């Protein structure tokens, strides 16, 4: 199996609006596949269908050859599908360490135990500290998530997703709102993960997309208008017209 | 060590209450103290779902009442020696009735929770309220068990080796059960499950993205909470030697929420302090005017509109201010 | 057959009452996101104020504006002093604050009117009963209630579907931010909606006076049934409130009227009466459970 993700004819309507229109797409194993498109194109809606938060009206989703179209969100996570949120979605009252710890614990199991002490689960906290040690948040581990800067929250989003040990990571605009330095850091973090897992990367920052992506798909008004390499996308007149033409000089 | 100060202090106060009541010659104090213990248990069980889990259940008195009725019904069948449904014998043994009360109220919570937790937000509040009221009506219409008047229990349940005719003995039995219950609750909120529950309160969507099937955990907490309230209700039936549908009237559910809020939502000792504050207030206000609920209403309104975090929150702020 | 028709009319009458209350409640939920337990208090205030004016002046008709005005005034007052502070709060604070209002209003009514129920004098036109169809005699006052309820339903339909305010209300119940984005004075809209809800509650309260006793606690009993209506109809949906209100009114009335008799066919009369009474008082809640199993958001959920 060379495709970790295969989507066929995915359709989602919100009333009269077709947010994703017959989307067919695949992500190769080990690949970083970028999904670009103007605001409102349906990128987040697509991500939400993939992870099971939204139910598609039509179409099928295969993860590593397995049909997950009708699987609840939490089961997809067990099969190795991780995601980050465009608008950061954290456990705001918990510290960074507690956030990551709970993500590790969630994957590790034993979540119904009522008689253990969560602070005494050594394997969970060792893994948590290991994840944090290799991250930019190591010094912030005891800060409340609510007190983090925007850039730090974006980093935590990513670590939480990684803690579930995904095979395929769905990233919804991980660089949105980041400054130049933070963006570079995020690019580095993501490229450091190359080879370990596959990614579907939704991003507006073209520099980041061109730096990271093996292939790029372009979504406009809910439809994939093309998929190709960075060069192919750059030179495609349809893309220039629909997307780059409006933003890029 | 410092963590132990408050629990030890609380246990000491409650343990000394019968003596104090005798010293000042006010028996009502022991009754008040017992009521605080039992309502604290019920409020704490509500706090598990409301404070730690973020589920605004407005029907928690139902499980309290079901627990009380289990004791009453078992007692009346034990008296009449007629088996329940012709199958199960009645009982007057506390060590039998308490577990059964917990099981039955847990089952009620399982049924109601499984339906109510399919929704959220205002619907959840209204549905839990409505189902609790349905149980209220169920008991009102059970004429075999006294209907609106309820069941009179001549004698508190027996415990081998104890003289349960003595009010003070009953009081200490309640105290022991309450201490055990709070010790258990302490384990729960600090367990793996407790951590998941706290996570769900903060951000259910995130928990789903971590692979947690939130519905199951919420339901589990809902059932545990129902069992706790049932236990408290079973004790109440023994203490009052009486059960009636009034115990599960929806205003009682409101009062339980008030206790949780007064003490401090999602704090471990909050429900104890909240129950104490509420019942002491009621005790003195009701002594003073029959319109004490007017005072309660005004205080509650002011607390909700102008304070945050209840009694424990205020204490924290005071501490913070001093530092 | 006549008996069934008569009970159907009774159910319809109860149903429109539920609708009057549920319409306001569901709009307040839908548009402001506020759960208002004190809605039943407005119903009670309408009943007491109207009945008091009616008994002192001796005119039933003068009671109507009195009940409406009192409920609306208290409604505006409550909105301005309490509810407005709750829009941005979570549901728990809303529940507690409006629960506090119930306690306060109940005690104030007791202080003013005492605990004894009072009764609304009915004008002579409404005495006796009239023959609607051959053999079916029915009290004209109940017919009046049905007529008023249906008129209000039609009026609300036009208000919601044909006016600017209605457009905002509809927009507001599906997308609150959009209304704000349109540059509408949201605060004014909220006050208007709350006032309208209070008005309908007051109307329902006064109209029920001659049928049920006007007493403290009357608001809470019907509030719970109203919640069931709102949940079944779908939060925020007037149409849902209408359908569910009438439906529940009829189901509840029919169960109470006929279930014990039906059960007597199978079991001892005393058992039949007990079980019949219990099942019929639980009937609407069971219905709610069934609807929720099939449609967790209610029959006509707004938005989603
Ligand atoms: N829950 C929803 N209900 C109705 N419309 C929605 C919903 N979510 C997204 N939309 C609409 O679907 C379109 C695609 O949105 P989205 O997927 O967020 O776009 P993108 O992430 O590409 O910017 C937009 O027009 C948006 O307004
Ligand atoms: Mg997006």
Automatic annotation (TrEMBL), chain C:
CDD domains: TM_PBP1_LivH_like
One Pfam entry name: BPD_transp_2
Transmembrane segments: 12-38, 58-83, 95-114, 141-160, 188-207, 222-251, 272-294
Source taxon at top rank: Bacteria
GO cellular component, one term: plasma membrane
MF term (GO), any: transmembrane transporter activity
Keywords: Amino-acid transport, Cell membrane, Membrane, Transmembrane, Transmembrane helix, Transport
One GO BP: amino acid transport
Compartments reported by the entry: Cell membrane
Membrane topology note: Multi-pass membrane protein
PANTHER family hit by this protein: ABC TRANSPORTER ATP-BINDING PROTEIN, BRANCHED-CHAIN AMINO ACID TRANSPORT SYSTEM PERMEASE PROTEIN LIVH
Family, similarity comment: Belongs to the binding-protein-dependent transport system permease family. LivHM subfamily.
Name of the protein: Branched-chain amino acid transport system permease protein
Organism: Lutimaribacter saemankumensis
